[in-house]
Amino acid sequence: MRLLLDTQVALWWLTASRRLPAASRALIAASPCVVSVASVWEVAIKHRIGKLPVPPHRFRDEMRSAGAVILSVTDDQVLATADQPDAHADPFDRLLLAVAHVEHLVLLTADAALIALARTEPTLPVKSV
Questions:
Q1: What angle, 0 to 180 degrees and rounded to 10, lies between the N-to-C axes of helices 112-120 and 91-103?
Q2: Cα torsion angle, 12, 32, 118, 128, sign
Q3: What is the mean pLDDT of residues 46-59?
Q4: With the CA atoms of 23, 24, 25 and 28 taken in that order, what torsion angle do they form, in degrees rounded to the nearest 10?
Q5: I want to staple 52 with a disulfide (CB 3.0 to 4.6 A). Which of 7, 46, 88, 95 is the partner?
Q6: What domains appear along the chain, each with residue ranges and CATH number?
Q7: Ramachandran region, residue 29 (left: φ > 0; alpha: ψ -120 to 50; beta: rest)
Q8: Which of these, 116, 89, 104, 93, lies nearest to 34 by C-alpha position?
Q9: Which residues, in sequence order, are CB contacts of 125 under 8 Å at separation 6+?
Q10: What pLDDT, on a 0 to 100 scale, did the predictor assign at position 87?
Q11: Which pLDDT does position 16 carry in this prediction?
């Protein structure tokens, strides 16, 4: 299984946060991992406004060093956001769902709204941490 790491999960992994369960840590270590450039952009925005101390260059570089592939956003991924349920409004999360779908990845997330959405839409490629 190839994993697309949600931005929060990727940050927890990089910072060795205790919020990331050991089982999820083991799954990440045993799986090919991908990070969308949308997550790099999200980190850049949150860093710029002071909500996140991790600079986007460091986030990107450390994800690469850890073996994750940084995946560019494509027009097919963006177009796939139009086919998603309207139940989730966050544009970054909608894009990550579309990336997972188009690229045949499983989105690993701790986001309660995404997890709840996946329960109602079982075809969504979402796995909770």
A1: 50
A2: negative
A3: 96
A4: 130
A5: 46
A6: 3-128 (3.40.50.1010)
A7: alpha
A8: 104
A9: 97, 100, 101, 104, 105, 106, 107
A10: 65
A11: 92
- Phi-psi domain of 55 (left: phi exceeds 0; alpha: psi -120 through 50; beta: other): beta
2, two tokens: 């190839």
Residue with tokens 């994993």: 3
DSSP 8-state code for residue 51 = S
The DSSP secondary-structure symbol of 4 reads E
Residue 105 near residue 4, CB atoms below 8 Å: yes
Which residue type, as a one-letter code, is found at position 122? P
- The pLDDT tens digits for 12-36 are 999 999 999 999 999 999 999 999 9
DSSP H stretches of helix in 1-129? 7-14, 22-30, 37-48, 56-65, 75-80, 91-103, 112-120
